[in-house]
Amino acid sequence: MTAPLSMFWFIPTQGDGTYIGSDIGHRPADFPYLEQIAIAVDRLGFEGVLLPTGKGCEESWIVATALAAATERLKFLVALRPGVTSPAFAARQAAALDRISRGRLLLNVVVGGDAAELAGDGVFLDHDARYEQAAEFLTVWRRMLSGEKVDFEGEHLKAFGAELAFPPVQTPHPPLWFGGSSDAAIELAADQTEVYLSWGEPVDQVAEKIERVRAAAARRGRRLKFGLRIHLIVRETAAEAWSAANRLISKVSDDAIAATQAMAAKSDSVGQARMTALHGGRRDNLEIAPNLWAGLGLVRKGAGTALVGDPETVAQRLREYQAVGVDTIIASGYPHLEEAFKVAELLFPHLGVGERGRQRHATIGGEFGVRAAATS
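The structure assignment produced for this chain is given below.
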């Protein structure tokens, strides 16, 4: 029997809505709404949530800390930003949040690919130099979280007598996740992290990247796990699902597409270039592989593809990624509150993912079934 996939969801700290690329039906990223999503996915059986990072997002560490107090089992994948802060300060943050959440912290290493945004954060290194700095950062960070007193002098960073007074719950440290498609990114992932993430490219392209990462890790005597970041549009029938996909981008203007593609073109991210190449900024032929739809990438930087279809078909497509090594899916859907319920109720039964905390009880005859509640 195929093992269940680990299912994560997304906390939309940049805002949410019914139509992407439009302010119609927009939902601001206020905390009560984000809390609603977190509590729902914790109850529905999602293992964790990803919180994005960037100047357009509410600050992920602060939001995750607040959401940890409102949830019971949910894990929080929070951005660790080499270059934006010092490794010692980041180590203290990670240890504190790991303790506050009772060992539910995961770290998503984000080196960054937007030169303008990086400049705003005081980072002016070129692509490969950023990865060199990240390697030094993670070396200090990992040693500190492991309980060492660290003296380190590298090309980009220095630290002397760096240590933690309060250790994390997880040992040797909260797991490091990472996504990046360049050669420098893959070498960093193989050397320093535990889970490698890919955006939702066609299966053969994801398989090729996984094999490159596996080989790089094997050269170091290491083994990594693999995850997929993708959107899901699941409905009872394929026709309903494709209608929902087309409706999601029905308010997108040509100007919005052009503006997003112009911003994406300025990025030195190899992963972003691969995403953009899937659709080329064009509305036609957005189904780039069976049930894999690139419509979101027209106006969304980063992960821009969705699996679209009925539950059986989407489950089959996810199993195809699982067959090449993926064991964790980080999914999302617009709007994120309602779509979390659709994914859990329609898709989870086909993936062997059980609902946590959902109590079963009898119903009044005719309301939700044909069996009447027992009466005394």
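Interim note for the steering committee: The chain is about 40% helix and 15% strand. The chain has one domain: 6-351.
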